[in-house]
C-alpha cells in the first residue's frame, strides 16, 4: 500500500513536471519562423463582449477586468488570476461550475449537489461568488445562486483579499462568472446531451443584430434538463433561460440589458454519513456510496431565481470613461430535507443512523449598483489608469427553518419510515427559527495603475460602511450593527524579457460577522485579512501558453472562538486567528498546435494559530483543505490530415489526505481519479463523450465531523452533440 501511494504521487509529480517542461521546450523553440507560424494558426475562440477582455484564444485569456475593474493585461496585475474559458468548460465536459473548476489550482469540493456549486476552498477560505462583476446573494449553502455552465463565457478566479475593489468578503479569493451576452455576432446553435443517471438535456444559443446598421443586437440562451439524482428515487431537473439586448449607437457608447431565470427541482444528492463505515472501520463493513439518507415520500427541493440588470459604458474622450453596472436579483427556496446525524447511540451494532428532518424556506432579494469613472492619461514618461468608484448594495433576507429529530435508518438494510410535517409540532421538534435581515453596504474606492517603462505599480484604497438589521421574528428581538473598514492593495510588477513578469503585492480584506453576540453583550467586529504574495508569470513568445507560480501568506484575525471564561455558553470572543500559506503552480494553453494542457499543483498549510479550544494548531474543516493537490488535463486534436477534427483528452486529479473533525481527530485518505474525453468537430457539428472518474473509484472527499462525511462523485458519462449554422 505504501509503495502504491508513493508510486501514485510520483506519477502525479511527473505529469505536472511534464507540462512545465513541455512549456519550456516550447519556449526554447518558440523563436523559429515555423513555430511562430504554427502559433498564428491556432484555432481562435471568439469571446463575447462580457468576457475577460480581447485576445482570448482557446484556453488562454490574456486580459482581465476582474483583477482591476479596468481592461488590463493579466501580466500587469499583481495578484494571481486564473481564467477558465468556455473552451475549457466544453473540452473537459463540465456540467456545473463546481466541475469547471476541477483543474484550477487548489480547488477542492465535497462533490456534486443540486443545491450548490460553492463547496470549495481557495487558499483556505470560502470564496465569494460574483456574476459579471457584481456579487450574488449571500445565502445558506443549501440555497446558493447557480449559473448553468452553458450560459458561461468564462470564469475568473482572483486570488487573495479583494475588498479594495469588491467590498466585504473572506481573504481567499473571489469567483467571477462572465455571462454570454449579446455582442452583435450572428449565433445559431442547438445541442443535446445524454448521460448516465438518465440525464437528458437540450439547449440553444441564438443571437444576431436586430437592425441593418447593427445598432441593436440580441441573444437568448436556454437549457432544459431531466435526470435522476445520484442517490435516492427523485428526479433532478432544471430549466434556465438568459436573454440579453445590446444597444451600441457608436464606438463610444454601449448599453446591455440582461435577464436570467433558473428553476431547479430535485433532492439533496450528497449524504451526511458517520466516520464509522466511511473513513473508520465499521463491524458491518463499508457504508454504500449509494445509500440514500433522505425520505422518499417527504424530501424535495424547489428553487427559483431570477435577475435583471444592465451594463452601461460611455467614453467621453480619450481620457475619461464612465461605467455603471446594476442588477436586481431574487431567490426563493422551498426545501424539505432528511439527513444523517451520526451513529444512533442506542444501537451498539453501529448499523443505525440517527437522522434529522428540516423544512427550509429562505428568500433573498439583492440590489447592486457599481459606478466607475476611469481616466487614462500621462504625466511625462509615466502612464496612469485611474479608477474612481462608488458602490452600493442592499440585501433583504428571510430565513424560516423548522428542525426536528427524524426516524433512525438502518444503513445496511434501509427501511424508510415515512416523515410528515407533523413531526415539527411534536415532542422531537427543536422549534421554528424565523429571521429577517437587511444589509446595506456603501463603498468608495480609488485605484491608480502607474506604468513607467517596464514597471507597473498598482495602488488602491477603499472605505466601506455596512448597516445590518437582524429581526428575530419568533423571539421578538432586533439587533442592529454598524461596521466600517478601510482596505487597500499595493503591488509592483516588472514586465521582463522572454515573456516573464514577476510581481509582489500586499492586500487586505474585511468581512462583517452577522447575528452573533459577544460574551460582553456587544456585537463582533468584522474579521480582517491581510496577504503578502509574490509570483511569476510566463507567456512564451509566439505561443498560446501561460504559466503561473506564486507563494503567499494570509492571516485572518478577529476570528470567533468560544468564551474561555464560560466554555459551556454560546457566547464568543474574537481572539482567533487563521494562517494560510502555500505555493501554487499552473500552466494552461497549447504546447503545440495539436496538444493543449491544463496543469496545476498546490501545497498549502492552513492552521488555527490562535484559538481558545481544541482547534488550536489544527486545520479548519468546514471546507476540505488537503495539504497537496495536483491535476493534469491534456487534449490532442488533429488539425490536418485524415483525422482532422478528431481529438482525445485525458485527465488525472490527485488530492492528498486531509484532516476531519474540528479537533482533527479524523484522517481522510488521499485519492486519485481519472477523466477522459473523445470528440469530433467540423464546420457545423461537434460530437463528444466525456467521462469523469472513469474507473468509478469510491472515495471520501471530506469530513466536517465524525457524523458528517461525504463521498465524492461516482463515474459520470455524458455524450453531447452540438450543431451550428
Features:
mainly beta; 23-stranded antiparallel β-sheet; Maltoporin, Chain A; 7% helix; signaling receptor activity; signal; 725 residues; Beta-barrel_TonB_sf; TonB-dep_rcpt-like; 53% strand; 5-stranded mixed β-sheet
Q: So how many helices?
A: 5
Strand fraction equals over 45%
Instruction: Name the shape in a single word.
Output: globular
**Distance between the first and last residues' Cα:** 54 Å
Rg over CA atoms, rounded to whole Å, is 25 Å
Number of strands: 34
Number of domains: 1
CATH topology: Maltoporin, Chain A
Spell out the blueprint of helices and strands.
Elements lengths: L1 H27 L4 H8 L22 E2 L7 E2 L7 E5 H7 L4 H4 L27 E4 L2 E2 L16 E8 L3 H4 L6 E7 L7 E9 L3 E11 L6 E11 L10 E14 L2 E14 L33 E16 L4 E24 L8 E9 L2 E17 L2 E29 L18 E24 L2 E18 L4 E18 L5 E12 L15 E12 L6 E18 L9 E19 L4 E16 L17 E10 L8 E10 L2 E3 L5 E3 L2 E11 L3 E8 L7 E6 L2 E4 L4 E9 L1
Parallel strand pairs: 4-7
Antiparallel strand pairs: 1-2, 3-6, 4-5, 6-7, 8-9, 8-34, 9-10, 10-11, 11-12, 12-13, 13-14, 14-15, 14-16, 15-17, 16-17, 17-18, 18-19, 19-20, 20-21, 21-22, 22-23, 23-24, 24-25, 25-26, 26-27, 27-30, 28-29, 30-31, 31-34, 32-33
Question: Describe it for me?
Answer:
The chain starts with a helix and ends with a strand. The chain is mostly beta strands and 725 residues long. The chain is built from five helices and 34 strands. The strands form five sheets. The protein has a 23-stranded antiparallel β-sheet that branches. A five-stranded mixed β-sheet has the order 3-6-7-4-5. The chain has helices at 2-28, 33-40, 86-92, 97-100, 163-166, and strands spanning 63-64, 72-73, 81-85, 128-131, 134-135, 152-159, 173-179, 187-195, 199-209, 216-226, 237-250, 253-266, 300-315, 320-343, 352-360, 363-379, 382-410, 429-452, 455-472, 477-494, 500-511, 527-538, 545-562, 572-590, 595-610, 628-637, 646-655, 658-660, 666-668, 671-681, 685-692, 700-705, 708-711, 716-724. The longest helix has 27 residues, at 2-28. It is globular, with a radius of gyration of 25 Å. The protein is 7% helix and 53% strand. Residues 1-51 have low confidence and may be disordered. It has one domain: Maltoporin, Chain A (Beta Barrel), CATH 2.40.170.20.
